[in-house]
């Protein structure tokens, strides 16, 4: 793993240096959260925690890093010496990867020396914003596909190698079943999948001989691309000839892929030809600039498709390519006391929630049917009944009374200095957790278009703390 400790914005180092000179013993609490959901959805699938933990655990500065920072002429020697002997002394708690999370909820909280915690902002946001964005897009696409497998194959269109590899990981968290990216497959234990490109067919004298040679080399992995010349007049008929020969020799053909044209009509024609030839088991894969809306349209039209290969619109979340997660100070220490802090803005939506907090998912009592989330101060005890306030400050009816519920905390301790406090499961275990958590939230919340709001509340104690801090600032 590359050392990413220098993946930071200069102002973070400048502030950390300033803390070292002025308030070196002060402790800080920072929250990671987002305000806006991509694609006008209602929630985000959080992802990237494993890479955050790995990088924080390995956070250090090499000699060449220190030499470069010294060359900038900005930092005192005592700060550079601190970095040269850096030891991670923070506590991290986080919502597990794969969990659907909502606006303003603390996905991750980090507590520790202020000058340390400040240094992690860019690194943490870079990892979590990217992977959560792609996991969320993958959830939308796989939701549209229903029970049909979706293969991620966007590496060539990703914005760089790291985005391709970790985007593939996030795509599986969001529901994809495989990836064409061999490095990601190797690194994260994801099934590698793929067929062929048009170049294979073009490299041979004709399409039939290209298919025959492929089947000769890969008799048990004969998935053929049928749209190089003409899907229904040559591609599928030639594939059928090869598939029949494979079956006669004791092999099972896999399927065909259609990568261009009117996929619904071509898939219907291909399905009929395959069925008429006695090959109902042969699968039809669609690709070609698909996204959740195209997938849904194809299936609504009755296209007989068995699976999908999706590239650029998934790996870049092309329709909504930014998750604007933020990293905000929520408290600082004064001696043994933790003092809540707040970011004030002319826009009430941007006012932050102060203090050390915990988010809870609320279920109808005795069920696994979630109906709301509540953000509370960490030391609050939730009783049997709750007077709460909508977290969205623009909501018209903010006060709510809740009873007959079970509350389950979402954040868990992850890292305490050198000590790992929680398991870091493999990517398919995270996917399974995500599916479980998704099954617990209302169907209307999961719609792709005009999803219903899943309420997020704050306790009255937290709301009053925010109001008191606003009043203190004259707002």
UniProtKB/TrEMBL annotation:
One family name in Pfam for this protein: NAPRTase
Family: Belongs to the NAPRTase family.
Domain Nicotinate/nicotinamide phosphoribosyltransferase: 150-336
Alphabetical list of CDD domains matching this protein: NAPRTase_A
Lineage, uppermost ranks: Bacteria, Bacillati, Bacillota, Bacilli, Lactobacillales
EC number: 6.3.4.21
PTM text: Transiently phosphorylated on a His residue during the reaction cycle. Phosphorylation strongly increases the affinity for substrates and increases the rate of nicotinate D-ribonucleotide production. Dephosphorylation regenerates the low-affinity form of the enzyme, leading to product release.
Species annotation: Lentilactobacillus kisonensis DSM 19906 = JCM 15041
NCBIfam families the UniProt entry points to: NAPRTase_put, PRK09243.1-2, PRK12484.1
InterPro entries: Aldolase_TIM, N/Namide_PRibTrfase, NAPRTase_C, NAPRTase_N, Nic_PRibTrfase-Fam, Nic_PRibTrfase_pncB, Nicotinate_pribotase-like_C
Catalytic reactions of this protein: 5-phospho-alpha-D-ribose 1-diphosphate + nicotinate + ATP + H2O = nicotinate beta-D-ribonucleotide + ADP + phosphate + diphosphate
MF term (GO), any: nicotinate phosphoribosyltransferase activity
Domain Nicotinate phosphoribosyltransferase N-terminal: 6-129
Pathway stated in the Swiss-Prot or TrEMBL entry: Cofactor biosynthesis; NAD(+) biosynthesis; nicotinate D-ribonucleotide from nicotinate: step 1/1
SUPFAM superfamilies for the chain: Nicotinate/Quinolinate PRTase C-terminal domain-like, Nicotinate/Quinolinate PRTase N-terminal domain-like
Domain Nicotinate phosphoribosyltransferase C-terminal intervals: 357-465
Superkingdom classification of source: Bacteria
The protein's enzyme class: ligase
Keywords assigned by UniProt, alphabetized: Glycosyltransferase, Ligase, Phosphoprotein, Pyridine nucleotide biosynthesis, Transferase
Any single Gene Ontology cellular-component annotation: cytosol
GO BP term, example: NAD+ biosynthetic process via the salvage pathway
Free-text function comment from the UniProt entry: Catalyzes the first step in the biosynthesis of NAD from nicotinic acid, the ATP-dependent synthesis of beta-nicotinate D-ribonucleotide from nicotinate and 5-phospho-D-ribose 1-phosphate.
Protein name stated in the entry: Nicotinate phosphoribosyltransferase
């Amino acid at each position: 793993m590359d050392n990413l400790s220098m993946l930071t914005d200069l102002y973070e180092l400048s502030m950390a240096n300033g803390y070292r000179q002025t308030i070196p013993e002060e402790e800080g609490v920072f929250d990671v959260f987002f305000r806006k959901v991509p694609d006008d959805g209602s929630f985000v699938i959080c992802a990237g925690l494993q890479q955050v933990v790995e990088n924080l655990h390995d956070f250090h500065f090499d000699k060449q890093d220190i030499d470069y920072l010294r060359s900038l002429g900005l930092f005192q020697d005592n700060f550079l010496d601190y970095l040269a002997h850096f030891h991670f002394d923070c506590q991290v708690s986080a919502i597990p990867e794969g969990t659907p999370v909502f606006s303003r909820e603390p996905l991750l909280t980090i507590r520790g020396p202020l000058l340390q915690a400040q240094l992690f902002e860019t690194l943490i946001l870079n990892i979590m914003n990217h992977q959560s964005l792609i996991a969320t897009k993958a959830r939308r696409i796989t939701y549209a596909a229903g029970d049909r497998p979706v293969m991620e194959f966007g590496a060539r269109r990703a914005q760089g190698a790291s985005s391709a590899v970790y985007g593939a990981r996030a795509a599986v968290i969001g529901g994809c079943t495989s990836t064409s990216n061999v490095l990601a497959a190797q690194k994260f234990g994801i099934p590698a999948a793929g067929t062929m490109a048009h170049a294979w067919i073009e490299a041979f004298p004709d399409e039939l001989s290209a298919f025959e040679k492929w089947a000769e080399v890969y008799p048990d992995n004969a998935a053929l691309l049928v749209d190089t010349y003409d899907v229904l007049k040559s591609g599928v008929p030639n594939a059928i000839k090869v598939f029949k020969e494979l079956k006669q020799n004791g092999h099972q053909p896999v399927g065909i892929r259609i990568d261009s044209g009117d996929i619904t009509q071509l898939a219907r024609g291909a399905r009929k030809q395959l069925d008429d030839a006695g090959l109902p088991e042969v699968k039809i894969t669609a690709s070609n600039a698909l996204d959740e809306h195209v997938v849904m349209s194809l299936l609504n039209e009755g296209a007989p498709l068995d699976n999908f290969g999706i590239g650029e619109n998934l790996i870049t979340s092309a329709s909504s390519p930014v998750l604007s997660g933020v990293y905000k100070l929520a408290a600082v220490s004064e001696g043994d006391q933790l003092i809540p802090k707040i970011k004030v803005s002319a826009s009430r939506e941007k006012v932050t929630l102060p203090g050390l907090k915990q988010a809870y998912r609320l279920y109808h009592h005795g069920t696994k049917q979630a109906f709301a989330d509540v953000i509370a101060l960490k030391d609050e005890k939730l009783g049997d009944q709750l007077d709460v306030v909508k977290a969205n400050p623009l909501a018209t009816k903010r006060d709510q009374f809740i009873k007959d519920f079970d509350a389950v905390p979402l954040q868990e301790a992850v890292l305490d200095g050198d000590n790992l406090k929680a398991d870091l499961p493999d990517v398919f275990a995270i996917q399974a957790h995500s599916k479980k958590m998704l099954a617990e939230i209302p169907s209307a919340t999961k719609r792709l278009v005009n999803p219903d709001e899943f309420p997020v509340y704050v306790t009255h104690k937290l709301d009053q703390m925010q109001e008191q801090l606003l009043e203190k600032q004259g707002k």
